[in-house]
Amino acid sequence: MSLFLFLTVVQALVAAALVGVILVQRSEGGGLGTGGGNPSGLMSARGAADFLTRTTAILATLFVVLSIALAAMAVDVSSTRQLDTSLQRNAPVLPQAPADPLAGAANPGVAPAPTAPTPAPANDPLAGSAAQ
């Protein structure tokens, strides 16, 4: 469980770094109205763009790999739990004869025999509502 927690923290740090790197990048269309940078700075505009693009690709790949690893670990961690069946209703299953949809077509003059309604289970809270 501690490895799962560690990878979750690393995943959050990678996600924060990915958001930061994406927000630092300049838009291609220049829609923000930013002018050209100073070419005599630490890095040229082309070098900074290449560095940020490479960093974005590496962080995105790391994010996807961590997501897959965490999903696989979550399946292993949660697969040992039992299903909660406390709300399952245990009504008795009554055997029924298979319905023949063509029974009336073979004997058109004979009406099918009426069937008696099946009684409601003793623990059914809505048993008395059908009689009203």
Structure explained in plain terms:
- With 132 residues, the chain is mostly helical.
- Helices cover 46% and strands 0% of the residues.
- Residues 29-35 have low confidence and may be disordered.
- It is a multi-pass membrane protein.
- Involved in protein export. Participates in an early event of protein translocation.
- It holds the Pfam family SecG.
Chain-wise SSE layout:
Elements (H helix, E strand, L loop, with lengths): L1 H23 L20 H34 L24 H4 L26
Helix pairs in contact: 1-2
Distance between the termini: 57 Å
Quantity of strands, as a count:
0
Low-pLDDT runs of 5+ residues are 29-35
Largest sheet: none
Question: What is the residue-averaged pLDDT?
Answer: 73
Strand content: under 5%
Reading the helices and strands in chain order gives HHH
Assign an overall shape.
elongated
- Which percent bin holds the helix content? 40-55%
Output the radius of gyration. 34 Å
Structural class: mainly alpha
Q: Please, how many helices?
A: 3
Labels describing this entry:
single chain; mainly alpha; transmembrane; transport
In short, what is this structure?
The chain has 132 residues and is mainly α.
